[in-house]
Amino acid sequence: PQHRQKFKEVSLSRRTVARRVEAISVDMTSQLKVLVSSFQLFSLALDESTDIDDTAQLLIFVRGISENFKITEELLSMESMKDRTTGEDIFQCVKNALCTMELPWQKMISVTTDGCPSLTGKNVGLLKRLSDRVSEVHCTRELIFLHCIIHQEALCKKVLDIKHVVDPVVKIVNLIRARGLNHRQFITFLEDCGSDHSDVPYHTAVRWLSVGRVLRRVWDLKTEILQFLEMKGKDKDFPQLKQSEWLSDLAFAVDLFEHMNELNTKLQGKGTFAHEMYSTVKAFRVKLKLFSRQLTQNITTHFATLATTAQPIMSTEKYTNMIFALDNEFGRRFADFQKLAAEFDILSSPFITDVEKAPDAVQLELIDLQCDSTLKGKFKSESIDKFYALLNPTKFANLRQMAMKLLTLFGS
User: Fold this and answer.
1) Mean pLDDT of the 117-122 span
2) What distance lies between CA 333 and its chain's CA centroid?
3) pTM
4) What superkingdom does the record give (predicted)?
5) Using one digit for the tens of pLDDT, what is the confidence trace for 165-223?
């Protein structure tokens, strides 16, 4: 309170605020320049989308690593693209951003994108131009291209044959939410019923977790929704709510999407390493195989909602087929990460990896590492980046270089 007058005297005119924002921007840029000057290697993540004014905004993120394994992950630049968004246009934006921050091309190790054609085109796409540029300045290095692992996981859902489940659910939700009167009456109806839920959420395609949440909420409120539709005289439009086979399919979709949403949530978060994200995906594929085997035997241990269906399961064959197709889609879409799987294993488990299967450059260093009991103890107590920072730069030069490359990768 004693400093209240000082705050009242602070100028808040538009020009003053704008000038201060610009000063903050210049200062942050100068700080980032200092950080990137210490990078031994760096990776980029690119995301291009359109704002409400139909202007394409290209977000360029950078993750770099210094000699002592200090990892910096920051927004490098946001480039507004008011005309075309071809591979050449995006390349020029990336080139300008790197030039502004004085980042050398020869230190670029990988690029992660959302997989749109203008970025991934083989002949004129951004990645081809970046690859050619890196080859010019560093002929021995091949640029690593990765497709955002979270985006890939979301796309894998499209292989599931559940359109007959999702479409009626979305129509039911739209019937309730699209009209204000119906929405208000439904909320009041739930209150009168003493329901644990107060509403049903919308399904939005761009929100990857929404479909699972909508399915779960409709399943939980299926009795109340049917009563409400009967009250409105709309129950004949949705006969599926009275069909035991459709309800079983809905229950299966609820359980499967909850498993996938759990995976999606685990993959999110800043600073997550690519090898950790890929390990999470591999674990999910093993779970899918377990689900398939158990459902073949009518075991619904991990499908709690499906187990509560009133009617016995009509046939589990279609459910196992969907899980099998989903597993195959995961294997197909994550081929770019699969190429790095052997190096990921060395990075995360250097003391138990098979030396003979490791790249020639690190075989001897791995033997020295595995025979050092002191380093083995430190590996258990330190984080993975701090552990590799402890290694002698002369004795373990190739191992440190490989660790720098893999820790710098953007998984998403």
Assistant:
1) 59
2) 13
3) 0.84
4) Eukaryota
5) 888 888 888 888 777 777 777 777 677 666 666 667 766 655 666 788 888 888 888 88
